[in-house]
Amino acid sequence: MCLVVQPFASPNGDPAAVLPVIDHGAEGPVRCRRCKAYLNPSIIFVDGGRRFQCNLCKGVSEVPEHYFCNLDHTGRRHDIHMRPELTLGSVEYTASKEYC
Fold first, then answer.
1. Pairing relation of β-strands 21-22 and 92-93?
2. Tens digits of per-residue pLDDT, 65-90?
3. Burial class of residue 32 in the structure, from the number of CB atoms within 10 Å of its CB (0-12 exposed, 13-18 middle, 19+ buried)
4. 30, 62 in Cβ contact below 8 A?
5. What is the pTM for the complete model shown?
6. Rounded distance between C-alpha atoms, residue 25 and residue 32, angstroms
7. Which of the two ends of the chain, N or C, has the fewest CB atoms closer than 10 A to its terminal CB?
């Protein structure tokens, strides 16, 4: 068995592609309240999209109002294809003043 890990690999294997830059404004990126993990494709939205369960620590955090979106009948957000952080393994975030 073999495992190849390549940090910051080009999205979709295209070397000309660039990572999408996510800017959530002054609020900064949405993160797990417990372990501070960033939202990613493996988190699970619960309670109609009002909260999410972290895939790393299993903690449940509230979704900020500015990021809320209803879920479809399968439990996926309606805007999932407009949110690269929920569909791609690598994205870049613009740091808020809290991080600078």
1. parallel
2. 999 999 999 999 999 999 999 998 88
3. buried
4. no
5. 0.79
6. 18
7. N
CA 64 to the chain's CA centroid: 13
Residue 33 · residue 51 · CB < 8 Å: no
Angle among Cα 86, 92, 95 to the nearest 5 degrees reads 110
Alpha helices in 3-75 (DSSP H): none
Please tell me what DSSP assigns to residue 73. T
Angle, CA 66 vertex, CA 65 and CA 69 arms, to 5°: 75
Pick from 63, 42, 40: which is nearest to 51 by CA?
Answer: 63
Burial class, 71, CB count within 10 angstroms (exposed 0-12 / middle 13-18 / buried 19+): middle
Which amino acid belongs to residue 18? V
Residues in the chain: 100
Residue 53's H or E segment, with its range, is: strand 51-53
